[in-house]
Specification:
- The protein has helices at about 25-35, 50-60, 100-105, 125-135, 155-165, 175-180, 185-195, 235-250, 255-270, 280-290; strands at about 40, 65, 75-80, 90-95, 115-120, 145, 170-175, 200-205, 210-215, 220-225.
- The chain has ten helices and ten strands.
- About 35% of the residues lie in helices and about 15% in strands.
- It starts with about 25 loop residues before the first helix and ends with a helix.
- The strands form three sheets. A six-stranded mixed sheet has the order 5-6-7-8-9-10, with helices on both faces. A two-stranded parallel ribbon has the order 1-2. A two-stranded antiparallel sheet has the order 3-4.
- It is α/β, with parallel strands linked by helices.
Amino acid sequence: MRVPGLPPVGGDVVASAVDLLPGGGFNVMAAAARAGAPVVYVGGHGAGRFGDMVRAALAAEGIVAALPASADGDTGVCVVLVDDSGERTFVTGSGIETEVDPAALAAVPVTSADLVYVSGYSLLVEAKGRAVLDRLDVVDGAGVLVDPGPLAGQVDGPVWDRLLARTTMLSASAPEARTLSGADDLRTAARVLKRRLAEPGVVVVRDGAAGCLLTRDGHTEHIPGFPVVAVDTTGAGDAHCGVFAAELLRGADLHTAAVRANAAAALAVTRRGPATAPGRAEVDVLLASTP
């Protein structure tokens, strides 16, 4: 919903536009697919109208759904309020995606050529979080990229300890990095978080228009963002994660992957909606036109 501002408690505002679109984890997968990566979705999806919408969107992007639809419920919804500054506020109503069959999850093959993306949302429900962590414990050789998500502070510390110990790459927004590290300074936060990761231990801290910090091998590098006029910040971090992952799978070095992820996130915020990541050709054009 496009709104002039958030309503006061007990109040109301009139939205200038309302859209019903697939989003959430789909944003990341769509970004990776548009950047050329083969993508497999290993999460839940319901049998109702929202699940139907999700499956159609996955198919349109060439994304494979590894698990069958669940007849026990429908996919959840997230109300996104986007104000006149382009900033977004979420209210999430969870659905069947909060559940997963551990046996079905264990049966999905993962090879050393893969990169496993894990959202912090998967940890919010204890049973699902435990199933995901158990599956990661037996993933052999694949990289694990974790995005904590805005509800990172609602997950218990020992759960984060277990996940981060299996994480090879962490991509967090600035507020998430501060929450997980306990440090206000972003460079300090990145160094603190890197010490909690598995080798090679790469931390990306996404800092909006400023770009991102890339921490690895005892060194932190600031990679500038791209100047654009933002109209909707929904899914910007998702676009960054998806493109970063896809570029690494293509064989790009970390610096190049982060630069292209910054460019993709910049283009994403110039468009209204959640899954607004560009394709590789669009990123190429922006890179070629920016000094």
